[in-house]
Write a structure and sequence with these properties.
heterodimer, A: alpha/beta, Purple Acid Phosphatase, chain A, domain 2, 5 helices, B: alpha/beta, Rossmann fold, 5 domains, seven-stranded parallel sheet, six-stranded parallel sheet, 41% helix, globular
């Protein structure tokens, strides 16, 4: 795990791609993309292995057990679309409901899932906790925590998902199983992040390095 | 059947007489299925067409009569031109057209509405035609199908797909006659069974022995490396002494490097071109045209010129690098002297000392007419899945009828019903054990017949037809106005390693990488500078079992009077310093080099099996805490490097647990993922195009890896994984050849400790295609690299 400070908050980037704020007993994940395979099938495309929900849930459960977070913020694109949220497999829904039980659970709206879903929890366009703003897409209003871009970076011949971190903002990697990524050196990301920004690669461990440009 | 008088007169007027096998083909015009084996230049294509011309001469047949299928687009256009000469010369009322990916939309539509008498096409274009609703009307009157270069198609899944299509055509037009045309075949009976049950083989006179030698050069070949740069002076002298020379290379990268240096040495300004699959179509067509016009003295080329175009003036073929496979060598030699009954002239240029041995062995095999080849496996199921989807695009189908039809295709003749049902289930429901797409099945059963749930998906399925999986490439263009001149394509993986200012070779010129714009690599010209690298890996063939055995037995000679002195000395040195590999034993060398511990295993099992050996041995090394970092495999050896020396190689090669290891290793290795990706694309699990937009290669790779991992975890017996495993066992993994090796050597392992690389091991250090081992060793290195970057940036 990689510990750092944003504004006055002490935060921890976990090797799973979740972000922890111990002082607030809070866990942040982004871009879960539940229901991706079901959405593609509905549109008549390929029938992908329909197991990504349980794979994502299994990792989320492990993080929740390890951190005992009382509050969970999902930074948007939690569902691949609103219909996918409604069509979620009964067993998966039950599992998600179990994870939500007893926790303050906040769904931030993303571009894939604009609008409330019937799954419970509270639904917000944005959220502010202490000095930090939580939203789906990075904005000029910092300090903020966001997702959306699915950043990834290369080191020693390997490509890994990563956090992007500078003094004003954090961009989370995609947490969902069926998600691709955008290279950190893409202009969309280099324009957002300060020259001193770090890429914190995830995987078995977290690996901080200067953000590739 | 006899020739129509008009054609007979025209042929006589040209001074042409039919070859015996051409007459034989006419005589057997009524046979259900015929395989004609004739040498290059023997007029076998005309032999295939003669019965069609005879049957069409009276102008009574309406609609499509003959379908000609070739593996190359370029070949269809060439054949159309060649065929039109006698047809127009004899004023026969026959319409001949070709149809490929390059045919215009308007023309393709018109062909569907009003098909020509003779249609020349490729397996991919035929797949598309058969997927249309009006396929039964288009093919209703079809009489004959001619499959050209059938041995080449039979080497890949394109052949399996084509045979399924022929079975389909047979249903649409019962009584259809088949003809297969082939040059070099090691197993005529096997190829005949592939074409169809009851195929008769017609063997033409094979012609005189080729005149083939190893090129004696002034400079001896280097100790290591590839590409044959050392021989450029001697090769130029040969080019000067001949009319037209084809210079074959095994990989595109080597062709590029060679071409670059050839031009630097070409003081006589001989017109020489380059041709390979990574060049843009415009560039390839320019070279082909120049060649056809006789304006070129030589072409540096790769497998892209293995087949096809009839360039009568080629009088010398030079093979640079070991040929790997005797059959392919014979094929390439056949490109010289496209005249029947004239010996072909060829020179072999070994790229390094080891290849001198390999070339000598290949030369002896050619003289002995000892062709090689692995037997074909049963028809792959991913191709069947695609065929089922394509069939559904054309019309609803009955499962029993389709099964019966599929088993009429040679490669699927012994397909069990259960396997067919599994494929049907996969295409319809995804075939998942743990969860079903109840609402969103792709195929639905309605009134007993299977059809697309959503007819609009036919578009996507059609876009994904075909079994050729491109490596992920990006277009390269010169930066400039109008989007810039296209130069060719490079592999995406290579492009991702470039930073602006890097130079590389493409199309024989050095270019400077400027940047990536959308999906295009922009470059500028950078004359007179040494390139950083050449780019493409191209296809790497494994040396055949037969050729490997010949090489090993050659190494056993007490001395080598048939080899050049330098190579004989090198082998002698290996014998003194270490020992030479022997049949039935495994030579293993250990030595330190450049701060890493090395282990070299001389298995002679072919590149793919040696690669698998590398993967399995490094896995065991990882388990034993020996921190391997990577390995590289060639046809004869695997070189492994790591942080800790190996003291007991036998423990790494224990065969009893090998299968189990293979299974667990399948869990996460790159070779399997690549294999899975190809299978998933062919079977329709991943789309190569969607709504006309090509997915970026990087994203496709990424998601297919994740799909592979997910399936492994949640549905390990899924059809896609079964296919991937079966494929890998005989293809990329080539486990059967590895098991043969380990059975052969038993416990006869000779472990030799050295203080430096041995003469035989040295070449391996320059081999491309090093495979990293993602284990403890690499994790340590990644940590060190990240920490170094942080320190350099002053962040810690």
């Amino acid at each position: 795990m990689y510990t750092f400070r944003l504004a006055t908050a002490d935060l921890i980037a976990l090797p799973s791609g979740a972000l922890r704020w111990p002082a607030q007993n809070l866990l942040v994940v982004s871009d879960l993309h539940f229901g991706k395979s079901e959405r593609l099938a509905r549109r008549g495309g390929a029938l992908l292995p329909p197991f990504e929900n349980r794979e994502t849930l299994a990792r989320l459960e492990a993080d929740l057990n390890a951190t005992a977070a009382r509050r969970v913020v999902c930074l948007g694109d939690s569902f691949d679309d609103l219909a996918a949220a409604e069509a979620m497999d009964e067993a998966d829904q039950l599992w998600l409901t179990t994870l939500m039980a007893g926790r303050d659970w906040i769904w931030i709206e993303g571009n894939h899932d604009a609008g409330p879903v019937s799954i419970g929890g509270s639904h917000r366009a944005e959220l502010t906790v202490g000095a930090l703003a939580f939203r789906h897409i990075a904005s000029a209003k910092t300090p903020e925590i966001s997702g959306h871009y699915h950043p990834k970076a290369r080191i020693a011949g390997q490509t890994r998902r990563c956090f992007l971190i500078d003094a004003a903002r954090v961009i989370l990697p995609a947490y969902g199983t069926y998600t691709g990524g955008l290279h950190a050196h893409d202009p969309a990301l280099t324009a957002l992040m300060a020259p001193q920004a770090l890429a914190v690669l995830i995987g078995k461990t977290t690996l901080p390095m200067p953000m590739p440009r | 059947m006899t020739l129509p008088p008009a054609l007979d007169q025209w042929l006589t007027a040209q001074g042409w007489a039919l070859h015996p096998h051409q007459r034989d083909m006419l005589a057997r015009a009524g046979a259900a299925s015929t395989l004609l084996i004739a040498p290059t230049g023997g007029g076998k294509t005309l032999a295939g067409f003669l019965p069609s011309l005879a049957e069409l001469a009276d102008g009574r047949h309406k609609g499509l009569h003959t379908l000609y299928i070739s593996p190359l687009k370029a070949l269809t256009a060439d054949i159309r031109r060649n065929l039109r000469r006698p047809v127009e010369g004899a004023a026969l009322p026959i319409r001949i057209e070709d149809r490929t990916g390059d045919t215009t939309y308007t023309q393709r539509r018109r062909q569907r509405a009003d098909p020509p008498h003779i249609l020349l096409t490729t397996p991919e274009s035929l797949a598309l035609l058969l997927s249309y609703e009006d396929a039964p009307r288009i093919f209703a009157g079809l009489q004959r199908v001619i499959v050209d270069e059938i041995h080449a198609l039979a080497e890949s899944k394109r052949g399996d797909q084509l045979m399924l299509q022929l079975a389909r055509l047979e249903s649409l037009s019962p009584g259809l006659r088949r003809v297969g045309l082939s040059a070099t075949v090691e197993d005529p009976a096997g190829l005949a069974a592939f074409l169809g049950a009851n195929t008769q083989v017609l063997q033409a006179d094979p012609g005189p022995d080729p005149d083939i030698q190893v090129l004696i050069t002034q400079t001896p070949p280097p100790w290591s490396g590839g590409g044959g740069r050392y021989a450029i002076g001697d090769i130029l002298a040969q080019v000067s002494a001949h009319k037209t020379t084809l210079i074959f290379h095994n990989t595109r990268a080597q062709a590029e490097i060679f071409f670059h240096h050839l031009w630097l040495a070409n003081s006589d300004d001989l017109p020489i071109g380059i041709h390979h699959g990574s060049l843009s179509r415009e560039q390839r067509e320019r070279v082909e045209q120049a060649m056809a016009d006789g304006r070129l003295r030589a072409i540096v080329c790769t497998g892209s010129l293995d087949l096809g175009l009839d360039w009568g003036d080629v009088d010398l073929v030079i093979q640079v690098g070991a040929p790997k496979n005797v059959k392919r060598l014979v094929q390439r030699i056949g490109r010289a002297n496209h005249r029947y009954n004239a010996p072909s002239k060829a020179l072999l240029v070994p790229a390094n000392r080891f290849e001198v041995v390999e070339c000598q062995a290949a030369l002896e095999a050619v003289k002995a007419r000892d062709l090689d080849g692995e037997p074909r496996g049963p028809g792959p199921l991913d191709v069947l899945c695609q065929h089922i989807l394509a069939t559904a695009c054309a019309a609803p189908f009955d499962a029993d009828a389709l099964y019966a039809e599929v088993t009429n295709a040679g490669p699927y003749a012994s397909l069990p019903r259960a396997a067919f049902d599994a494929c049907l289930d996969f295409t319809a429901t995804g075939g998942y054990a743990l969860r079903a797409y109840d609402k969103w099945q792709r195929l639905m059963q309605r009134d007993g017949k299977w059809s697309l749930r959503d007819p609009r998906t036919a578009t996507v399925i059609r876009q994904n037809l075909g079994t050729i999986i491109d490596s992920e490439t990006l277009k390269v263009r010169l930066k400039g106005r109008m989007g810039g001149t296209p130069l060719g394509e490079i592999e995406e993986a290579f492009a991702s390693t470039l930073t602006p200012g890097d130079t590389f070779l493409i199309g024989g010129q050095v270019v400077r990488y400027e940047g990536l714009n959308e999906m295009t690599v922009q470059v500028s010209r950078q004359p007179g500078r040494d390139p950083k690298v050449a780019v493409f890996s191209g296809t790497k063939f494994a040396t055949s079992t037969q050729l490997s055995a010949r090489i090993l037995s050659l190494l056993q000679q007490p001395d080598w009077p048939n080899l050049p002195a330098h190579t004989a000395q090198w082998l002698t040195l290996q014998r003194e310093v270490s020992q030479l590999p022997q049949p039935g034993r495994l030579l293993v060398e250990s030595f330190p080099y450049e701060g890493r511990e090395h282990l070299c295993l001389y298995g002679f099992a072919g590149r793919n099996a040696m690669q698998t050996l590398g993967l399995l041995v490094t896995k065991r090394m990882e388990d034993q805490g020996l921190a391997p970092l990577g390995f590289v495999a060639t046809d004869y050896a695997t070189l492994i490097w790591g942080l800790t020396p190996v003291t007991d190689p036998a423990s790494l090669l224990d065969r009893s647990t090998l299968r189990a290891d293979l299974e667990s290793w399948l869990a996460g290795n790159a070779v399997m993922k690549r294999s899975f990706r190809a299978t998933a694309i062919i079977a329709g699990l991943i789309e190569r195009t969607h709504q006309g937009r090509r997915k970026s290669g990087r994203q496709a790779t990424f998601s297919s890896d994740i799909l592979y991992d997910t399936l492994r975890k949640y549905d390990p017996d899924h059809l896609m994984l079964q296919i991937t495993r079966a494929e890998a066992m005989r293809g990329l993994v080539d486990f059967s050849r590895l098991e043969d090796l380990l059975t052969r050597i038993g416990n006869r392992i000779d472990h030799i400790h050295l203080d430096r690389p041995s003469p035989l091991a040295a070449p391996l250090f320059l081999e491309p295609g090093k495979v990293p081992v993602h284990g403890l060793g690499r994790e340590k290195l990644a940590e060190a690299a990240a920490a170094q970057l942080m320190r350099d940036a002053g962040l810690i």
